[in-house]
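Task 17 of the worksheet. Students: predict the tertiary structure of the chain below and write it out as structure tokens. Keep your answer in the requested format; marks are given for formatting as well as content.
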Amino acid sequence: MKDVDNIAVSQSLIKSLFEYKEDKACGIQFYKQYFEGMLFPSSPVQKLGQWFEYMATGALPKDQLVPLPDKTSKNELTEAYKKMTKQLENWERLKKKYQIKILTKGRKITVYDKSLVPNPIDGTTDLEVELTDYQTGIHYPYVMGDIKTTGLLDNKFDDRGWEIGNLGNKVKLVMQPIHYKFIRMIETETDEEPPFMFFLFSNTNGVDHRIIKFNLDTEANIQQHRVLIQNTVKELHYQLKKGFKPLPEVSRCSKCPLKDNCEFFIDVPLIQEFNYNEI
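Model answer:
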């Protein structure tokens, strides 16, 4: 087991801790992943995204295994993967139009700020690129880039929806670019905000894709993120002392790699209580 102060504070850890505190994630899984370093299997949607990113950039997922596409009994790509092959064509056209030059892929950045927390603070970039905006002519010698596949490009209300007018309210989405900008600024020892762009590709059709350049009020947002990192480490200490609680649920348990030896595993639903108060 890792000591709390040796656990790297990543944006995925922060988001997972949020979900645990909101009773949307199992504490046993959280503990195994972040305190014992266990890798959990990817969901079908995650596998699709990993395959797309590998085909687009050559970047491998965390397990360092080459992602393989799902195929039919006739050894043909499933419909989901066929759509993403069309998106690969869009990615190649986009690269050409914006003169994208890939500088790095899958680079892990680890920094320290002992005035903040004793922990390492890290993040792994999908891409670091050089590009030129063909509309404005602005040249960006360095951009942090993140490739995502999603079925929620125009969704306004889902926590993972990318409708740009409501994007500022999606705490878990905007946390990623803020965190990456933060660690890059520490790495380069500068107060200059590095550009960050999302490259988004629909997984429901082979047409829709877009680029979002994420800007922030550097001083205010960075200071808020510093406080968030401090509070995250404090919360890890508190939850470890308290004990991470399980969150058994039939669907979650059925797909959990811990289920064979987990004392909290269930395969029938627990009784939930609802108290109705007539108005």
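Marker's comment: The chain has a mean pLDDT of 95. The longest helix spans residues 218-242.
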